[in-house]
UniProtKB/TrEMBL annotation:
InterPro entries found in the cross-reference section: ATPase_NBD (IPR043129), Gcp-like_dom (IPR000905), KAE1/TsaD (IPR017861), Peptidase_M22_CS (IPR017860), TsaD (IPR022450)
Cofactors demanded by this protein: Fe(2+)
Subcellular localization(s) per the UniProt record: Cytoplasm
Organism: Saccharibacillus endophyticus
Catalytic activity: L-threonylcarbamoyladenylate + adenosine(37) in tRNA = N(6)-L-threonylcarbamoyladenosine(37) in tRNA + AMP + H(+)
Name the record gives this protein: tRNA N6-adenosine threonylcarbamoyltransferase
Family statement drawn from the similarity comment of this UniProt entry: Belongs to the KAE1 / TsaD family.
Residues noted as binding substrate in the record, renumbered to the chain: V133, V134, S135, G136, G137, D166, G179, D183, N272
Top-level EC class: transferase
Its EC number(s): 2.3.1.234
Length: 342
């Protein structure tokens, strides 16, 4: 089964062809980071225009590189949401046109299901599983009873982890996107400025990052007002330790509470060195199998969309040609039908 997948939910235009939800024949990603850097963040209107400029070329190139004929494709998958509506629409229109012209089924796919199923590109997922989703727009603990069934156990009540990283980075004077810079500074620093851990109510799987972010901004402002040098490394390390400690503790607790056979890490912040090493160490100590996709499948890409769409395709759950972008699309609502689960 060959699925051609399209992803345009934010600032990456990507087209991939994935065989059997597992084997990536081609995965092309045109990143707009350089364009948005000048603005210090993603400008939605600019993102949409760039998607328009890239999408046709990427579609043609993906098919050419795969060595397949368009008719060899079994379905066209596209990110339906969540994301920037104008950006989503570009991919959706292209995918619809392609599906209609080739008379192939269309599969509207959830972006976060894609991030989670990026792990399937590496190995089969064992259920029940817990996924820790950490990206630019999402911070969630998701329970998966079986393939394609999603239940959100907890999520951030304010900023997403990636968003908090980018805001802290900006305060420390790092260029956009700042997450990787804060990560590097944190790992290079010998000392950590003490910062609070935000646990919320006992037993809660939710997160809150805005207070921690404000604490960092206050520290930076205080230093500047006093004319002192900002301890960038110490702050980065303190921030990272605080974030990582809470993420790891809640994810591990979820694994135990639900008897999960596997923990899946995913999303752009899965690239974070501090998080990867802390989670790897904890999982090793507690004999919890941990899956982390390689970096290229952690950030936005269409291969992960092809992997997620496959679980719908094999159940015959395809979309009609009337789908339109769903900026606030629900992950639970995208679950496969329970009765159809094998
Ligand atoms: P969503 O998937 O929620 O719609 P998104 O697709 O924009 O959001 P991703 O592309 O998955 O998000 O991740 C991008 C985020 O990951 C950015 O906020 C970036 O700063 C952050 N990030 C990337 N690498 C690292 C790192 N090493 N440490 C911390 N954050 C990082
Ligand atoms: Mg992105
Ligand atoms: Fe994403």
């Amino acid at each position: 089964v060959h699925i051609l997948a399209v992803e345009t939910s934010c600032d990456e235009t990507s087209v991939a062809i994935v065989k059997n939800g597992r084997e990536v024949l081609v995965n092309l990603v045109a990143s707009q980071i350089e364009t948005h850097k000048a603005f210090g963040g993603v400008v939605p209107e600019v993102a949409s225009r760039q998607h328009v400029e890239c999408i046709t070329l990427l579609l043609e190139q993906a098919i050419a590189e795969s060595g397949l004929q368009p008719d060899d494709l079994d379905a066209i998958a596209v990110t339906e949401g969540p994301g920037l509506v104008g950006a989503l629409l570009v991919g959706i229109m292209a995918a619809k046109a392609f599906a209609f012209a080739l008379d192939k089924p269309l599969i509207g796919t959830h972006h976060i299901a894609g991030h989670i199923y990026a792990n399937r590109l590496i190995e089969d997922v064992q259920y029940p599983a817990i996924a820790l989703v950490v990206s630019g727009g999402h911070t969630e603990i998701v329970r998966m009873e079986s393939e394609g069934r999603f239940e959100v156990m907890g999520q951030t009540r304010d900023d997403a982890v990636g968003e908090a990283y980018d805001k802290v980075a900006r305060a420390l004077g790092f260029p956009y996107p700042g997450g990787p810079h804060v990560d590097k500074a944190a790992q290079a620093s010998e000392s950590a400025v003490p910062l609070p851990r935000v646990w919320l109510e006992e037993g809660s799987y939710d997160f809150s990052l805005s207070g921690l972010k404000s604490a960092v901004l206050n520290l930076v402002n205080q230093s500047r007002m006093k004319g002192e040098e900002v301890d960038k490394g110490g702050i980065a390390r303190g921030f990272q330790e605080s974030v990582v400690e809470v993420l790891v503790a809640k994810a591990i607790r979820a694994v135990h509470e639900f008897g999960a056979k596997q923990l899946l890490l995913c999303g752009g912040v899965a690239a974070n060195g501090g998080l990867r090493s802390a989670l790897t160490a904890r999982c090793a100590a507690e004999s919890i199998p941990l899956l982390i996709p390689p970096m290229k499948y952690c950030t936005d890409n269409a291969a992960m969309i092809g992997a997620a769409a496959y679980i719908k395709w094999i159940r015959g759950e395809v979309s009609d040609l009337y789908i339109k972008g769903e900026p606030g699309m629900s992950l639970e609502g995208w679950s496969v039908e329970a009765a159809a689960a094998p």
